[in-house]
Design a protein that fits this description.
Blueprint: H1 3-25, E1 28-29, E2 35-36, E3 40-41, E4 44-45, E5 49-56, E6 62-66, H2 67-80, E7 83-90, E8 97-100, H3 102-105, E9 114-117, E10 127-131, H4 135-141, E11 147-151, E12 154-160, H5 161-170
Length: 181
């Protein structure tokens, strides 16, 4: 397969994932995948949340979560006064997950009892590698548990997308859809 075809397939796969996440969370897909100043940034959003969506190709059962995605989305959400989240899924699988930073997670008014240390592969490592076959992932996948991922000095909270939706609805953190254009 040539590079042009591969790129087109990746864009289609990404668009399909964005639409799926937007449908589940009752949010809007941002036109042009959030890269056009006219429509704003982010992949999906409503009047409370700004989400970045990543469909991640696995290597040896592991998914690489780039902290740059989380940081960039946080900065973009700040510009709009919205709460950021990262939605991700392992490519070719049905499950979908949400990652939040601690200052956003605290707004959900939930406790987290499970701490998972994500080892850094080097002192300067910036990417989290999550093995989707780890035992703790089964409870997250089933929507029964929120885990705190400790990555060096940084913490992130991860849960299944259905659990995230039920929490934001119950806590009144579900915004209205926006219109663009």
């Amino acid at each position: 397969m040539d590079q042009k075809t591969r790129n087109r397939n990746n864009r289609k796969r990404g668009s399909k994932f964005e639409k799926s996440v937007a449908d589940i969370l009752d949010m809007n897909v941002v036109p042009y995948s959030g890269s056009n100043a006219r429509f704003g940034f982010g992949d999906i959003r409503d009047s409370v949340w700004l989400g970045e969506c990543k469909n991640i190709t696995m290597k040896d059962g592991r998914c690489k979560i780039q902290t740059e995605w989380i940081n960039d989305n946080r900065n973009k959400a700040k510009m709009y006064g919205l709460l950021p989240f990262l939605a991700w899924m392992p490519s070719g699988r049905a499950e979908k997950y949400i990652i939040l930073e601690p200052d956003v997670f605290i707004k959900l008014n939930r406790k987290c009892y499970t701490l998972i240390e994500i080892p850094k592969v080097s002192r300067v490592a910036v990417n989290l590698f999550i093995n989707i076959t780890d035992k703790w992932m089964g409870k997250v996948r089933a929507g029964k548990e929120i885990v705190r991922l400790q990555f060096g000095t940084d913490d992130y909270y991860m849960m299944e997308i259905g659990l995230f939706k039920s929490i934001i609805v119950s806590e009144g953190l579900k915004g209205v859809k926006q219109t663009y254009g």
